[in-house]
Design brief:
It is built from 4 helices and 6 strands, in the order αββααββαββ. The protein has about 160 residues and is of the alpha+beta class.
């Protein structure tokens, strides 16, 4: 009986499990981590989505706010992206050691709440990482608007996980 069992196990090992050999399959490009270059964030039905702005060199945090205010391009609009921020009038943005403060004295605080705040926070976090080498997930953004202050926030608080 023992020999039969050993023979059966040996036969099973030789026969394999029925999986036939295949050619080498290409698994695609390896994961690359955080994409290079500037990204700004717009709202969608699934939450915030970052879109590349490869032709735009980041020179200041204010330039990023202007990019966001310009809104999605035609292709992004067609894909269902929207700018929910309601930034009006003057604004300024400063950073020190990963702490970003954006001042919007003529924008009601409600215009930068919820997902609109997320758009601003994630876009500024990305810009701060490009400008000063701070990890985007370490950047904290505070928004001082007409009628109140929101934050400090990190981008991860707004991204669907």
């Amino acid at each position: 009986m023992k020999r039969v069992l050993i023979s059966f196990v040996a036969l099973a090992l030789v026969a394999g499990c029925g999986v036939r050999p295949t050619e080498v399959l290409d698994g695609g490009a390896p994961a690359s981590g955080i994409p290079e270059g500037m990204r700004i964030y717009f709202a969608s039905d699934q939450g915030l989505r970052g879109v590349s702005r490869p032709g735009n060199e980041v020179t200041s945090l204010e330039a990023v706010v202007k990019l966001l205010m310009a809104g999605p391009n035609e292709a992004e609009l067609a894909a269902g992206l929207a700018d929910l921020t309601a930034i009006t009038g003057e604004f300024s943005a400063t950073a020190a050691e990963g702490q970003v403060t954006v001042r919007l004295p003529r924008t009601p605080v409600g215009g930068v709440a919820g997902m609109a705040a997320g758009q601003l926070v994630c876009s500024l976090a990305r810009a701060e990482s490009l400008l000063h080498g701070t990890r985007p997930d370490a950047v904290r953004v505070t928004v001082v608007a007409q009628g109140g202050t929101v934050g400090p926030y990190q981008c991860s608080q707004f991204l669907a996980g």
